[in-house]
Specification:
This protein has 101 residues and is α/β, with parallel strands linked by helices. The protein has helices at residues 21-37, 51-54, 71-79, 93-100; strands at 13-18, 43-48, 84-85.
């Protein structure tokens, strides 16, 4: 009779971010701290361009969309394709403003 051995291998922690230099630096800092706290885990950084990155010609007020720099990342997080996202708080001013009211 074959005995099944439970795998102790955990999948990597998937960290989402934008491809901008600032986002990558911030994500590297977060990843470094996670590695200190949980050195046995593996971490993958998934950097992507978002709607706000890809369209540099349309005026922001013409987008009629919120979260131009985070929407795609948030969707991947909600779908379970990412475990966490790193984004500068400066990019979430509208969300912060509505929460403080």
């Amino acid at each position: 009779m074959a005995t099944e051995v439970a795998s102790t291998t955990q999948r990597p922690v998937r960290i989402g971010t934008r491809k901008s230099m600032l986002a990558r630096v911030q994500t590297d800092i977060v990843c470094k701290e996670l590695r200190k706290a949980w050195p046995d885990r593996q971490y993958e950084i998934h950097a992507m361009s978002t709607m706000g990155d890809n369209n540099q010609t349309t005026a922001l007020h013409e987008f009629n969309a919120k979260a131009l720099w985070t929407h795609e990342l948030e969707a991947l997080l909600e779908n379970g394709d990412l475990d966490l996202i790193v984004h500068s708080l400066k990019g979430t001013l509208s969300a912060r403003s509505s929460m403080s009211n």
